[in-house]
Description:
Elements: H1 2-23, E1 41-44, E2 53-56, H2 72-89, E3 94-99, E4 111-117, E5 125-131, H3 138-158, E6 165-171, H4 175-179, H5 207-211, H6 213-216, H7 229-241, H8 246-251, H9 270-283, E7 288-296, E8 303-306, H10 313-322, H11 340-347, E9 352-360, H12 367-386, H13 391-405, H14 410-435
Helix pairs in contact: 1-7, 2-3, 3-14, 12-13
This protein binds zinc ion.
Amino acid sequence: MILQRRLRLLFVLSTLILFFRVTHGAEKDLKPFDEEVFIGEVQAHEDLKKLIVSPSFSDLYSGELAYFPKSYEESRGRFLQHINKLALEIKEAKIDRFLVPSPIYGDGDLTVDSIYIPPRKEEKGLLVIVSGTHGAEAFVGAAFQELFLKDFLPQLLQSQKNDSLGILIVHSLNPFGMKYMRRPTENNVDLNRNYPVKEDQYEIKRPAYADFYSVLNPQTSVDSLNWPVLSFLKLLWQSVFGSVSVGEIFAGGQYEHNKGIYFGGQKKEPQVTYLVKKLNTLAKNYESLMVFDLHTGLGKTQLQYMKPAYLTEEKLKDYKKMFDGFFLTPNSAYTALGDFVDYTYLAFPKKRVYSATLEFGTLGESLKHRISTMNRIIKENQGYQFGYEDSYLQKAVKNRFAELFYPRSKDWRRMVLCESRNTLSVLVPRFQRSLGDEVPIGELEKCIN
Ligand SMILES: [Zn+2]
């Protein structure tokens, strides 16, 4: 008992020290992900009441790092080039474009683009690769997709090894978020909390989130990069003594506060309706699905595969066998509501479903980095909703946010490509083998960050 109390005291003291380091200037320690490294230009859209910033990443890297796009428009253009060429070569391929209605800002050029390539012989397994569920994370997702389209798919098609494999690639599910470097949509909806996973999904109440509403969503313009002291102490108190974890309060999803972080919406977002319909139609005839939803920003600085939260014991064994050798995250302390990967698993209970959130971590998951991650997400939303005291703060907040989800570090980007190659040369062929297609399986490379 006494030991426990001492441990708690020790924890509180060390966290307080950490608090002052993190909240008062120590963010500079977070190299190579600090603002000095990120020099993307920002262009404020002055005509819009809210301060929307569309980053224009300078053309940084060529050669092996040229997969990473510098803007939404460039990324979409490159994707369209690939899929238009494919559609000319394969007459059964179908390309598709969905115009996302974005009335608030009058941006009439936000599209979700996709290609579906059916198998040569029999519809057995469907591979689905989605980028941009979180807009700001779409740049890395698009790089993964380009790697597949450029370096893997041509070989697969030329060797005619896709007898049973159908392929659906969806580019930038949240084009507004990609274009203006936000995670949620134009309606402030987090698409990864918006899928209809539970009955009455959009009626769910989260009292703990409501308690912390003003901590997570300050109602004033951004006047500092630091955490307000009292807010931080409240979260600290909760993490030591509270019954609901800070992680769940912060990121579990909520359906009541449309200006708050992790808002899951009050109905399906248009592109969720679109993708759900597309998946239901295409997947109907397939017996297995492999779904990759591409994300960045959270967890360890490597690629983590996050499995569906509702996997049954029986299916878990088979799932683990498929992902053997890949880093599957342990079950987290809470379940996020309305997650895409959970949806793909729950929607097709009779099929074998290997869906995973592919999360390329950036800062890392030490306590210091977790605190900084939360701070960056909160400040970005606060600035979007209520503006900034000055342009320096605006730029600093946007840059830190961009560095969290699209780091410029060359080593980090090399790691992304290396991990992506592992996924495409080992996991996809494994999936094909499970369908009966005789394809070679590559060797797992060790990716160093
Ligand atoms: Zn994400």
